[in-house]
Structure formats: C-alpha cells, structure tokens
Amino acid sequence: MERGQKPNKPAFPEPFARVVEAFRRLPGIGSKTATRLAFHLLLSSDEERAILSDSLNTLASRLMPCRDCRNIVERDADNPETPLQCAICRDPARDRGILIVVEDIQTLYSLEKSGEFRGLYHVLEGRLSPLEGINPDRLRIRELLDRLNDPEVKEVIMATSPTTDGEATALYLSRLIKPMGIRVSRIAFGIPVGLEIEYVDEVTLIRAVEGRHPF
C-alpha cells in the first residue's frame, strides 16, 4: 500500500452484511449501530436468536387494528378475523366525551405513557401530504366522522404534528368537525414547530394537552 493511501474497509461476509443492511433500514439506525446489533446477534445463543426470529415472524399475524381507534390489539386465537377493541377503548374509566386525534400509533403510546390523558384516541394512520400523494381517502377520516356521531363526544383534540402537513391535516379535519357542533381544540403549548410529537418528552406532552386551545 502506498504512503498516504487509506486501507480498504473490511468487507463483511454476505450473510452478516445482509443482517447489517436489514438493521440499517430501521428508523434511527445508522451503520455503526446496525453493525453492533448484528454482532450482538451473532454472539447470542441459538435460543435467543430463535426467540427474536419467532417474535418477528408472528408480529403481523398475531396483531390487528382496534375496531374503533386503530390502535394495535392481539387477535383472538379462536376467531382471528373478528374485529376487537383495544384495552384503552374497553376501559370503562376512560372519558368518552373527549377524543384525541393522532397520526400514528407511536404518538398514541407517547401520549398514553404520560398518564395524563384519560379520554379516547383515534389514529389517522398518516397525515395529508399532497406532495406524497396522501389525500383524505388514504386516512382514517371516514371512521373518525362515524365515531363522532356518538352524542357522548363533546370535544376533539387535534394532536397531529406541528409540521406543515400536520397543520394542514388538523385544519382540514376541524372544518369537517365544527359543523357537527363538537368543540375542536389543538395542542400547541411547548411543542417546537416542525418536531414530530413522538420525539417530545412526557412533561412537554402533558403541558401540550393541558394547554390546548380552540381550533
């Protein structure tokens, strides 16, 4: 090797490289972390790798969307295609007069982890984005409006992310909901503009919900 020439990076064997690449495709995982995870699996016992493999293989087949809010719920083993309610929707202690709208399940669990919100949820499964071709028909908006026919619902809180698309989604929904005579509010306090809600800390989320304002 000539002086000043950088040595070639070591090439991993193909089976190992495939695992590294699989981890790299996950959100927030870079090359270094992916490599560390792959080495961890390589050095793990056969039993540990089998547990992980089985968990991944059955992840989708054993879960289904909640029939009401679109949260995840485990299928009934005897009747796997029967729509079910999640634990939150089944909880009789929840305030059924307040419904908070979120973009994804991750945000639902971020809010739920704070322990402050005691109403119900509705997961849109995305947000409006004309540039990405995501229009209202691709979101769970019809299901939301169906739920709002329940006279018990008095308020809908918009908890979409404070990005351009998130704000547009909240505005679009508020224009559909207000004529139904239901109060529409928007979380805003303490959340920086442009930040995904799932990355906001619990204290800030609590203040955001408590400090909501009419929309």
Provide a brief overview of the structure.
Helices cover 38% and strands 12% of the residues.
Written overview of the protein:
It is a single chain. The chain is α/β, with parallel strands linked by helices and 215 residues long. The protein folds into 2 domains: 14-58, Helicase, Ruva Protein, domain 3, CATH 1.10.8; 64-214, Dna Topoisomerase Vi A Subunit, Chain: A, domain 2. The protein has helices spanning 14-24, 31-43, 46-58, 87-90, 105-114, 141-147, 164-177, 202-210, and strands at 63-65, 72-74, 98-102, 120-123, 155-158, 183-186, 213-214. The strands form 2 sheets. The chain has a 5-stranded mixed β-sheet with strand order 4-3-5-6-7. α1 (14-24) crosses α2 and α5 crosses α8 (202-210). It starts with 13 loop residues before the first helix and ends with a strand.
Mean pLDDT rating = 89
Tell me the name of the CATH class of the largest domain.
Alpha Beta
Percent helix, as a range, is: 25-40%
User: Order of strands across the biggest sheet?
Assistant: 4-3-5-6-7
User: Which structural class fits the helix and strand makeup?
Assistant: alpha/beta
**Number of distinct helices:** 8
User: What is the domain tally?
Assistant: 2
- Beta-strand segment tally: 7
Order of helices and strands: HHHEEHEHEHEHEHE
Main sheet overview: 5 strands, mixed
Taking the alpha carbons of the first and last residues, their distance comes to 66 Å
Low-confidence region ranges: none
CATH architecture of the largest domain: 3-Layer(aba) Sandwich
Overall shape: globular
How much of the sequence lies in strands comes to 5-15%
CATH topology of the largest domain: Dna Topoisomerase Vi A Subunit, Chain: A, domain 2
Determine Rg (CA atoms, Å).
22 Å
